[in-house]
Specification:
- By secondary structure, the chain is α/β, with parallel strands linked by helices.
- It has one domain: TIM Barrel (Alpha-Beta Barrel).
- Helices cover about 30% and strands about 20% of the residues.
- It is built from 6 helices and 10 strands.
- It has an 8-stranded parallel barrel.
- Helix 2 links the parallel strand 2 and strand 3.
């Protein structure tokens, strides 16, 4: 099992560079003006150019029209294979298939109800009335109920940090994990020590799983 690491809410060049040093797989940039981690369109190309060619760029939107997203995607000039759009509002991802890149649906999981999966990749976050990510912890028993409905490419979010991510991976076995507030000193400012500890915790869990698989062979 090779769990991908997604760091979201990036808005400083030094944080992008640190992620590159650590081998982060996915770099999330918030394009919603209502977020404290918002990256203005003029600043986005400058940050994105420092993302390694082997990594993925994820643009986070809330209720933006497909035409607006498509225009920004084209302006970035990032290959479609390396670019995703994450819909963090209540959008129907099927309405965004024309933007030309992969669409990631966000499912906010609460104690009650079962969300409808409408995309081949989803990010599972804690239920909240607010949009754009809150750092709240996900309701784990609800996630147990939803887990069988998820596609193979699903990313676990919701209050993860270095202390919690290993156990979360072992219990739920996500395709990827997402972190923002769990590695920050304030919204949009990453703590490089916490960031390194988070990536190390994921890597350690990977190694444990690989060793376990080797022993079973």
């Amino acid at each position: 099992m090779s769990v991908r690491v997604k760091v979201c809410g990036l808005r400083r060049a030094e944080d992008v560079e640190r992620c590159a040093e650590l081998g982060v797989d996915m770099y999330g940039f918030n394009c919603w003006p209502g977020s404290p981690r918002f990256v203005p369109p003029a600043a986005l190309p400058i940050l994105v150019r420092d993302v390694p060619a082997v990594a993925e760029v994820v643009l986070v939107f809330v209720r933006s029209p497909p035409s607006e997203i498509a225009a920004l995607v084209q302006a970035l000039e990032v290959p479609a294979s390396r670019l995703s759009v994450q819909l963090h509002g209540d959008e129907d991802p099927r309405e965004y298939e024309g933007v030309g890149v992969r669409v990631v649906q966000v499912l906010r999981v609460g104690a009650y109800g079962v969300p409808t999966v409408r995309a081949s990749r989803v990010l599972v976050d804690a239920h909240s009335a607010a949009f754009g990510g809150t750092g709240a912890r996900i309701h784990e028993e609800a996630l147990v109920r939803v887990r069988p409905l998820l596609p193979s490419e699903w990313i676990l979010a919701g209050g993860l940090d270095a202390a919690r991510v290993g156990a979360a991976i072992e219990r739920f076995r996500p395709w990827g994990v997402d972190v923002a507030s769990g590695v920050e000193t304030e919204p949009g400012a990453k703590d490089h020590e916490k960031l390194g500890a988070f990536v190390a915790a994921v890597r350690l869990t990977r190694e444990r799983e690989e060793m376990g698989e080797g022993e079973r062979c």
